[in-house]
């Protein structure tokens, strides 16, 4: 019978044998998979594991700083790289969803390759690939975790020529969470909702600017904090906010406003392949909407997405 304890003992032993005194580089995303993979490797080889956590400027509010601090507390040898500007520059004027994904994937590879080059004599590239990624049913891992081959137009970057280690490749998501709990990773981190690799870029419909990212981060933070306060966070599989590319008329005092609309989305799912919108309490929606409109300058209307997948997807892009 599979148990997380036995898996950890066996895997750590195997990693020690396999890697010996060599160096390993790994990209952390803030998600469950890359974190658990990193902690297993850390147990096996300590500081010979070099973690890189890239801020693409499209993460949730305060996520980069908070998660980087958590990684350090966990004892990981991690370098935080703030490449926000590089990503935003590459995204300037890009509205097509697939072009956004391509631009983000390309810049990620450039940034990661630059960083990997700064570590002398690396032998292995570790990835948080899990079994569903291997069989390619659905991947909720973005380029920051699972590097997909179609990103390499024009030859492989050097880090992709490294030998691969994937300690989670035989595990399902729930098993990864159990392994994470076994090795002492905080419950809050393990229970996090999935978050797409391209981040807020695919939740800002149309082109992306630093100001739009800031607005969406504020809205998203109010929504997610509210879910936690109302004890709804763990009942939802994934939640987030979408910034719509339209303005709508409103009133504030005696003044007419003409500002942006945001949509809130919360779904129940087991694997992301199908999903139902969540019947959130009206009172929660009412309070959240008020908070958003009162606190976030530039937004005067909030709508709730009541579409299920299929035919609607979870993300709007
Ligand atoms: P959809 O929108 O296809 O999303 O119903 C299903 C799940 O996949 C995530 N998603 C992505 N994850 N890179 C990712 O890493 C992407 O480009 C991407 N697009 C969608 C989405 O957040 C949901 O969990």
Give short descriptive properties of this protein.
single chain; 317 residues; alpha/beta; Rossmann fold; GMP Synthetase, Chain A, domain 3; 2 domains; 5-stranded parallel sheet; 4-stranded mixed sheet; 10 helices; 39% helix; globular; binds xanthosine-5'-monophosphate; purine biosynthesis
Fraction of residues in helices? 25-40%
Q: From the alpha carbons, calculate the radius of gyration and give it in angstroms.
A: 20 Å
Q: Multimeric state of these chains?
A: single chain
State the total count of DSSP E strands: 9
Tell me the number of helical segments per DSSP (H or I, 4 or more residues long).
Answer: 10
CATH architecture group name of the largest domain: 3-Layer(aba) Sandwich
CATH superfamily of the largest domain: HUPs
Domain count, please report it: 2
CATH topology of the largest domain: Rossmann fold
In this structure, how is the largest beta sheet organized?
A: 5 strands, parallel
Strand % is: 15-25%
The secondary structure category is: alpha/beta
Widest beta sheet: strand line-up: 3-2-1-4-5
Structural shape: globular
Overall pLDDT confidence: 93
CATH class of the largest domain: Alpha Beta
Low-confidence regions: 137-153
Q: Which compounds are bound in this model?
A: xanthosine-5'-monophosphate
Q: Terminal Cα separation, in Å?
A: 41 Å
- Give the ordered list of helices and strands: HEHEHEHHEHEHHHEEEHE
């Amino acid at each position: 019978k599979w148990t997380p304890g036995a898996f950890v003992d066996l895997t750590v032993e195997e990693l020690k044998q396999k890697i010996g005194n060599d160096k390993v580089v790994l990209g952390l995303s803030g998600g469950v998979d890359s974190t658990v993979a990193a902690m297993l490797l850390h147990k096996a080889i300590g500081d010979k594991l070099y973690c890189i956590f890239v801020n693409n400027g499209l993460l949730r509010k305060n996520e980069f700083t908070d998660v980087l601090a958590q990684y350090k507390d966990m004892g990981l040898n991690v370098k935080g790289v703030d490449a926000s500007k590089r990503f935003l520059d590459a995204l300037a004027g890009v509205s097509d969803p697939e072009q956004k994904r391509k631009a983000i994937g390309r810049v990620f590879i450039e940034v990661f390759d630059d960083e990997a080059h700064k570590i002398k004599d690396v032998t292995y590239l570790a990835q948080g690939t899990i079994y569903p990624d291997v069989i390619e049913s659905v991947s909720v891992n973005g380029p920051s975790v699972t590097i997909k081959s179609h990103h390499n137009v024009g030859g492989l970057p050097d880090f992709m020529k490294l030998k691969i280690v994937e300690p989670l490749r035989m595990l399902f998501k729930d098993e990864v969470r159990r392994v994470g709990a076994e090795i002492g990773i905080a419950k809050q981190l393990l229970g996090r909702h999935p978050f797409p690799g391209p981040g807020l870029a695919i939740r800002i419909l149309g082109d992306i600017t630093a100001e739009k990212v800031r607005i969406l981060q504020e809205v998203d933070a109010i929504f997610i904090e509210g879910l936690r306060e109302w004890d709804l966070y763990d009942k939802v599989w994934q939640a987030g906010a979408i910034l719509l590319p339209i303005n709508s008329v409103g009133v504030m005092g005696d003044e007419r406003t003409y500002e942006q609309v945001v949509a809130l989305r919360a779904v129940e799912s087991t694997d992301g392949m199908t999903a139902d919108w969540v019947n959130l309490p009206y009172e929660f929606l009412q309070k959240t909407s008020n908070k958003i409109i009162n606190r976030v300058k530039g937004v005067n209307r909030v709508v709730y997405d009541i579409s299920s997948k299929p035919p609607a997807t979870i993300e709007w892009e």
